[in-house]
Each structure stands twice: as structure tokens, then as C-alpha cells.
């Protein structure tokens, strides 16, 4: 089967390969500090889904450092300048609290958008952290470079969401989605496959819901549930309260999900990679390259 992959979308849109730079906005998360909940979503590690980003440097410094990291991983073969997406990944990047003010949010997003090598700015956040002032800033930055807003919905099943402690209801997501699309922003939604208590039907229901959104969803990221050391999920896993998916199960569900999504929706990710040093399960997911190749091979075969 074919799907609209991020690589091909980036090539079509920007005319070549684009690399992601993992950055930190210096934000925390309302689901960790008691505003919405304590301790965060059960699967979230202390790095707040951004275990590869730096925390204390300016955006410009982070960009330079992240570029070096990318260049050492993918050595340059010529002098053609590389294109990058500035990805504010860790915690909730539009949560105005502590050292992150509206002013510093604007300043940091602008610093990324005005950087010559950056072709798009991606912001990972929650739908309940998109107040009108934040929307105004995102819209302003979107005039300079495309802004992608990434929302960690994970599931439309309210029961599952309550179990892992998402801290907002589906209505909050749909309201934010409508406002983001009305403002002309590009929206990517994260979905986790294999959440405790979810059947295959539950997972497909989430994808069916997202596939029916109007206007059509711009991007979707599929992530295999990882159990990471130090999370609440790890305690439940060690108590034997749930099992993680095996590779065959993941392939099968992912294939069914991909068949449901509209052709216009770009598949930004077909699985994720939890930081290896704290990965408890499933261990088969640790070899990212092998997993991705096997997944792609499976998808081609169906
Ligand atoms: S909303 Fe995101 S950053 Fe916050 S606890 Fe959940 S996964 Fe972690």
C-alpha cells in the first residue's frame, strides 16, 4: 500500500530533503505541575517527549548545536545548504508559565522562523494551551515560515485518556483544531497505538475520527506505546497490568490505520523511538532502523 509520507511531502513542498532540529522552548507542562494534573501522562518521561532537545541555550545556539548533531549523523556529501525544521518538541511549548512568557514565546519562535536555514517551525503542544494571545503569535510567525502545531491527542477514547491522565477532553481538542485551521495553521495530531486497555477497534476509531475532520487533517504521527523507565506506565507494566504490542500486531494495526486516512493527510511518522537508555519495553523497538525498514517492507506488501 502507498501512503502520503513526510519525506515525499517535504520534497514536494521544499524541493529537497529537510532535517529536523530538536529544540526546547524552555516550557513545562500543565499536566505535570498541578494545573491540569500531577506527574504528567502515564507514558511521559521526565524529558517531556523531548529527550533529545537542549534546555538551557538560546534558540540560535540550540539550532547550531542541533545542526551539528544532524550533520554528524548524516554527513554532508556536497556544499548545498541544508534545510531544517525547527521542532520545539519537549513538554508543552505554548504553555505560558514560569520563565516562558508571551513575550519570550514570540521571541523564541521568531528566532527560529527568521533563521535562514529553517524552512518551517513545528511546535508540540496541548489543545488547552492555545489561548487567543498564543494563537495570535503562532499566526504572526506563520506569515514568515509555515508553522506546524503538533497536538498529542493519542486517542479519542475518553476512558483510555482518563487512565493515562491526558487532562483534557475530546471537545477541547476539536475546539482547538477548528481555531487552528481557521487561523491557517498546519496541524499534526499524534496517536499512540497500544495504549493500555485499547482494543484494535479503539485504535481504528481514533483514526476514523481524525480522518473525518473538516477541514482535512494536515498530518498524523503514529507512535508505538513505549514503556520508559521512571514513568507511571513503567510501574503498571512491572505489575503486569498490561502488555506491549509485538511487531506483528503493530504492523497489522498500523496498516489498517493507514488505509483509513485521507490521501491528503501526510503521515509524519509510522512509529516513534523512545530514548534507548530508558526503554523498558517493547525492546524490539530499540533498533529504529531495522524496525522502520521492516515496517516499510510490510506496508509495501499489503
Ligand atoms: S501533555 Fe505531553 S509533555 Fe505533558 S505530560 Fe502529557 S505527554 Fe508529557
Automatic annotation (TrEMBL):
Gene3D superfamilies: tm_1862 like domain. The keyword Plastid does not apply. Keywords: 4Fe-4S, Iron, Iron-sulfur, Metal-binding, S-adenosyl-L-methionine. SUPFAM superfamilies: Radical SAM enzymes. GO terms for molecular function: 4 iron, 4 sulfur cluster binding; catalytic activity; metal ion binding. Transmembrane segments: none annotated. Residues 13-264 form the Radical SAM core domain. InterPro entries: ELP3, Elp3/MiaA/NifB-like_rSAM, Radical_SAM_C, rSAM, rSAM_horseshoe, rSAM_sf, YhcC-like. Its cofactor is [4Fe-4S] cluster. The keyword Ubl conjugation does not apply. This is TIGR01212 family radical SAM protein. It comes from Treponema peruense.
Amino acid at each position: 500500500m502507498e501512503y502520503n509520507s513526510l519525506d515525499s511531502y517535504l520534497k514536494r513542498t521544499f524541493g529537497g530533503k529537510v532535517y529536523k532540529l530538536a529544540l526546547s522552548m524552555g516550557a513545562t507542562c500543565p499536566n505535570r505541575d498541578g494545573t491540569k494534573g500531577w506527574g504528567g501522562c502515564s507514558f511521559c518521561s521526565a524529558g517531556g517527549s523531548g529527550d533529545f532537545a537542549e534546555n538551557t541555550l538560546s534558540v540560535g545556539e540550540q539550532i547550531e548545536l542541533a545542526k551539528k548533531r544532524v550533520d554528524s549523523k548524516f554527513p554532508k556529501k556536497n556544499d548545498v545548504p541544508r534545510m531544517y525544521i525547527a521542532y520545539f518538541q519537549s513538554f508543552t511549548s505554548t504553555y505560558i508559565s514560569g520563565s516562558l512568557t508571551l513575550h519570550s514565546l514570540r521571541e523564541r519562535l521568531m528566532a527560529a522562523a527568521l533563521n535562514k536555514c529553517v524552512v518551517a517551525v513545528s511546535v508540540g503542544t496541548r489543545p488547552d494551551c492555545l489561548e487567543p494571545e498564543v494563537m495570535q503569535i503562532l499566526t504572526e510567525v506563520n506569515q514568515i515560515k509555515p508553522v506546524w502545531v503538533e497536538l498529542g491527542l493519542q486517542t479519542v477514547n475518553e476512558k483510555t485518556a482518563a487512565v493515562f491522565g491526558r487532562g483534557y477532553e475530546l471537545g477541547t481538542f476539536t475546539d482547538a483544531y477548528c481555531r487552528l485551521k481557521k487561523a491557517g495553521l498546519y496541524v499534526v495530531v499524534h496517536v499512540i497505538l497500544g495504549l493500555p486497555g485499547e482494543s484494535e477497534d479503539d485504535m481504528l476509531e481514533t483514526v476514523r475520527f481524525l480522518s473525518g475532520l473538516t477541514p482535512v487533517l494536515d498530518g498524523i504521527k503514529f507512535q508505538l506505546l513505549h514503556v520508559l523507565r521512571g514513568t507511571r506506565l513503567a510501574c503498571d507494566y512491572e505489575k503486569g497490568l498490561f502488555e506491549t504490542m509485538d511487531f506483528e500486531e503493530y504492523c497489522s494495526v498500523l496498516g489498517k490505520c493507514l488505509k483509513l486516512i485521507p490521501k491528503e493527510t501526510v503521515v509524519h511518522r509510522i512509529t516513534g523511538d523512545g530514548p534507548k537508555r530508558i526503554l523498558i519495553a517493547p525492546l524490539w523497538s530499540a533498533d529504529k532502523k531495522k524496525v522502520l525498514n521492516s515496517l516499510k517492507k510490510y506496508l509495501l506488501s499489503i
